[in-house]
Amino acid sequence: GRWIAGAMDGTIYVGSGESMKVEEEMPFAELQGSQAQAFSSTATARFNAITVRRHLAVFGCSNHALFLVDYTRLELLRVLQVSHTTEAWALDFHPTLAILATASARGGVRFWNVADRKAAVGKVLRSECPAWSLAFQPTDGSLLAVGMDKGLLEVMHFPSLQPTFRERLSRAAERVSSLRFSSCGRYLAAGSWDQEVYLLHVDSESRVTLQRILSGNSSSVVSVMFSEDSRYVMSNSKDCQILHWSTKDGTLQRSQSVFRDTRWQAPWTSVLGWPVVGIWSDPKYDASDINSACQAYAPHDDLLAFGDDYGRVKLLRFPSPFVNPRIEVFTGHASFVTAVRFSPSNVLVTLGGDDHSICQWSLQPRGFEEDLTPNLRHPWAELEGSEAPQDRFAFLGRSEEATPREDPDPGVRRSRVFQDINQVQSEEEKRPTGP
């Protein structure tokens, strides 16, 4: 009979007979199919496992990739899975497109197709330093900021990924651990482990400049966010300190009571503050056990999700200024949860640490059974007008094998797990909501 083998250098061998003679030898990058070249442009297929059924073989790799190969035709049919090869801490959604960006301690930024729940193969941005935070500009997503080790901050145009700002902010060369644009898009706050918050200004031409360095923290900054009117910026630090500064002149606001009626930008993402007192109700928690929290978008903005160091994702009412609130607990990660984010259509994505996984969750009322019908063609699949010539990232998320399917009843819109929440709002109002 025939046999097939894969090597750690990405070579596939096919042979037959007891003599184990090799009849065909093919490097992974030379397989038929466009995804083979796309994957090979950013990584090496390091085969360490294989399973065969008839003419199909599934290859597993030591760098967490899975491939479906027709070995009789030496064709890559599909990339089943890709992953960061080290723990990842950075995560954000594009505000208008079904695109997710993640970044890892190895230094790569990956892009993912949220609607089809799969990676945009070959769409990896390499950086010279480990990346710990990232953020899209919330107004139109035209800027992507990435915070890295050694105090580096890079802001790029999206989707061209052409840099508009690159500077070492921290003189102590500490990592940029948290990033957040203001709701108006005019400010960018960068929190660093050097205990400083760096306030940057974004002008109408998308030029970014460092405006002020905000001091006062006595420990590393873990979270930053703005007030709704962008007049103030708030930081959380490792020693559970909450500080506020004016974005106008950078003055530290000494009185906390003046902010009791302040409206903060949505979604809320800080792990400290009176609206999120309830997330710390578990008696086993210490100050480092919750890494990330995120409020859902309207019409479910009365909910907040957070992840902990025990691999759990939790959901509770927002705001939650109570010591012992009702909390729904969900499992799925095999390691600590490093980041959680809701998309504008209320798709929740959670990022695992050492399990190298991304979990995608659908926010639905209790007892609601969703029809897992394939997604329709996405309106953002045909992006045009990019500032970059022949922009490689203009088709992020396009499904090459996707073809229009006839609906047996075109007069009825069939529900989908990740369709825009506004499109089913009227239906959900008739059902019980949340926990």
Class based on secondary structure composition and strand pairing? mainly beta
Mean pLDDT: 84
Task: Report the principal-axis shape.
Answer: elongated
Radius of gyration: 23 Å
Spatially, the strands of the biggest sheet line up as: 4-5-6-7
| Tally of contiguous helical segments | 2
Which residues sit in consecutive blocks of at least 5 with pLDDT less than 50?
372-435
Distance between the termini: 57 Å
| Sheet with most strands | 4 strands, antiparallel
The helicity comes to under 10%
- Strand residues, percent: 35-45%
Kindly state the number of beta strands: 29
Description of the molecule:
The strands form 8 sheets. The protein has a 4-stranded antiparallel sheet with strand order 4-5-6-7. The chain has a 4-stranded antiparallel sheet with strand order 8-9-10-11. Strand 10 (108-113) and strand 11 (118-126) form a beta hairpin. Helices cover 3% and strands 40% of the residues. The chain has 435 residues and is an all-beta fold. The protein has 2 helices and 29 strands. The chain is elongated.
